[in-house]
Amino acid sequence: MKLSGYRVFFFCILVLYLLACPVFGDEMVPTNTHVYFEKDGQPFNESVQYTVSCYGYRCDWSTCSPPARTENRSKITPEIIFSYSATCPGYGCTIYEPFYLNYRHIDQCDLEGTTKEGNFTLKNFSTTPLPNCTDLHQFDIGKGYGNYYQVTPEFTRCENASYEAGDLCEQYLSKCNPVNDLDCGSWVVNGSYVKDTPESRACREEADKKRSACDVYLAKVDPSTMVMWKDARTGQEEPVMRTCEQRFTIPSDNRSVSAFVPPDRIAHIQMHRVDELIWCRIVQMFGGRCE
Q1: Mean pLDDT of 221-248
Q2: Count of CB atoms within 10 A of residue 132's CB?
Q3: Domain limits at 128?
Q4: N or C, which end of the chain is more exposed by having fewer CB within 10 Å?
Q5: Could you tell me the CA-to-CA distances from 68 to 64, 93, 105 in Å, in that order?
Q6: Residue 260 in domain
Q7: How far apart are alpha carbons 173 and 194 in whole angstroms?
Q8: What is the number of domains present in the chain?
Q9: Residues 60-117: pLDDT tens digits?
Q10: How far is residue 173's CA from residue 170's CA, in Å, rounded to a whole number?
Q11: In sequence order, what are the beta bridge partners of 249?
């Protein structure tokens, strides 16, 4: 996608903000998971309290390489790097764990469960706690809790017109030389260094006003029609961004079983969706929309 100077300017502001405030890139993804416990081939309709503990190591977000000064994986001591607990009162319950897995490499996940019949363990049931999930797209633009909107053709036309107005502001920029001009930064347009002027700023402000006025064409989504997720930390509800399904089999002897799932059967594709969903949340925070 080709970006005009005005859109590049807006994008740069967004990137600088994210670099200064990286916490927004680590937002949890609102997730509803439907959990099903079975035993002896039948639905288990009694209450199950359980804890999932995953072992591995913390790592760099981009490469997930082993910790510094570690020559190979065999020298890494496994530790619990992700864990959550939940209670499932009956077959087909819903839990609200967001599965925040950033900066973690996971080798193995275990489950410790308790029923009225006793305790049981599922050793190495997976190499990821993230179950099979489906991404939901319930709104295009979010403007704070309770304010969610869908984009309309009228909004898109209005928004494009505001960007076109912003593109015209380039004519008011002033060429400069960063060598001898302290006000000249790294902004380049058509191969030349440029800097802002009072006229270019006033022009962009007017274009921004036109863009803000486009909100009148957005279609508000009634939160009561949306699938919601409840943040256990704040109690605040917000739209679900993915819905998942997870199934566990309680051992017949109610003790322990190794239930490793081969890596090629694990939905690792869900991991890259975390990146997409987080980026989508960032864009929506700035009034943008996800395509």
Answers
A1: 90
A2: 13
A3: 23-138+241-285
A4: N
A5: 11, 41, 14
A6: yes
A7: 6
A8: 1
A9: 755 676 655 555 555 666 789 999 999 999 999 999 999 999 888 899 999 999 999 9
A10: 5
A11: 38
